[in-house]
Structure formats: C-alpha cells, structure tokens
Design brief:
alpha/beta; Rossmann fold; two-stranded parallel sheet
Length: 222
C-alpha cells in the first residue's frame, strides 16, 4: 500500500497518472500540489494549493510520510526564454525533489521528461540539455528509487485531453496517425493508461533501468 504525491495533475500525463492512482487498490492516498483547486472529489484524494513552486518548505508538513512522487508537470519551450524555461523545468522540479528527499529519502521519485532529452547536457538544443540536467540531478540525489520517464507519442484514453491548445488540436485531428504508427511499431507509442500503471508499478516492482523509453513503459505497465 502506497501514498503518492502528483505534480502536474491537471495536465494530460498528470491526469492520466491521477486517474490510475485513484482506481488502484494499492494506492491509499493521493496528494496533488496545485496552484488552483480542480474540484475533484474522491476519498483518496487531497489537494494542497501552493503558489510558489520555487520553495516547498512552507508546506513541508503536508509532504511527510509519502512513498512516491510522480512529477508530471512540464511546459513547452516554444516562445519561452531559456531562463524562464530553466526556472520552470529545472528549478521548480529540484526545489521539490530536495524537500522530499529531506523528508522521505526512501521514496520513489519519478520524473516525466520526454523523448530527445539530452543526458550529456552538452547538446545544441537548450530544452533537451535542461531536461537532461534535471534528470541527472534527481538521479544523483540519493532517493531509494528514481526513474526518468521519456514517453514519445501518447494516445489519450478515458476522455483525457491536453491543456496545450496546439497539442490538443493535433490529438483531435491526427490521433489516427499515432494509432497507425503504433500498428507498425507497437513499442514506440504508449497510451495514458500504460503511463499511469507503469508509474504505480515502479514503486513496488522497481525496474532494471533508470531511464524508461516507450518500450520500458509498456513493459512496466503489464
């Protein structure tokens, strides 16, 4: 039985993870850290409204005693300065990870980055370098378990939608293309349910890799 924290529960991936956690027999408590209330009501579910993601010490009493954190919050780098993107992607993530490590060092910390993330931190694409820096910092922090999830194309199920207007447009009109690509390359595309279940399974089952690509996510979801 596990208690989990979800960051980014209003986004497509975060919502998928949240739905699977609420319906899973092994998850007893779900805490979402949010900037505004979602209106979701469930006996397992609690929200903590928190505006300043650069620090989490002010809500540390809410974060104690958890078994896992599923960090699903992310933003597109399009139209955003490098400094702002790094603040949201790296600074916010590491601020929470450090607080949670101090409180719950035996927890599992899962971070959703994405296909193309640059583990070397030396590539030409700045968003990929920042994602890689974020992954590396978490992996070296000392958590009992830490896994980096790098999904590519994701098929949304259970009515889940993307908060990013452009992405949702693509899903509305081109999901058929993703489905076709899955037929020809079944291990290259995941769905939102597989994403959620693989996160949950990582707590008790672990995995033999620290960085999970689509085939690993599918395998862990079974």
């Amino acid at each position: 039985m596990s208690k989990v924290i979800i960051i980014g529960a209003s986004g497509m991936v975060g919502k998928a993870v949240l739905l699977e956690c609420l319906g899973h027999k092994d998850i007893t408590h779900v805490l979402a850290i949010v900037r505004s209330e979602s209106g979701i009501k469930h006996p397992k579910f609690k929200e903590v409204v928190h505006q300043d993601f650069s620090e989490f010490s002010s809500i540390s009493n809410e974060l104690l005693g958890f078994d896992a954190c599923f960090f699903c919050m992310g933003v597109s780098a399009v139209g955003m300065s490098k400094a702002e993107y790094e603040k949201i992607t790296y600074n916010y993530t590491i601020a929470l990870a450090k607080e949670l490590y101090n409180l719950n060092p035996e927890m599992t910390f899962n971070y959703v980055s994405g296909k193309g993330t640059d583990s070397s931190e030396n590539g030409r694409v700045h968003w990929a370098r920042i994602k890689g820096k974020t992954e590396n910092t978490i992996l070296n922090m000392g958590f009992k378990q830490a896994f980096m999830f790098r999904p590519g194309a994701i098929i949304p199920l259970k009515g889940i939608k993307s908060k990013t207007r452009f992405y949702q447009f693509m899903y509305d009109y081109f999901t058929w293309a993703i489905i076709i690509s899955k037929i020809f390359s079944p291990n290259s595309v995941i769905n939102t349910t597989q994403m959620g279940i693989s996160m949950i399974n990582s707590i008790s089952l672990g995995y033999d890799k620290k960085i999970l690509n689509p085939p690993d996510i599918i395998r862990l979801s079974k």
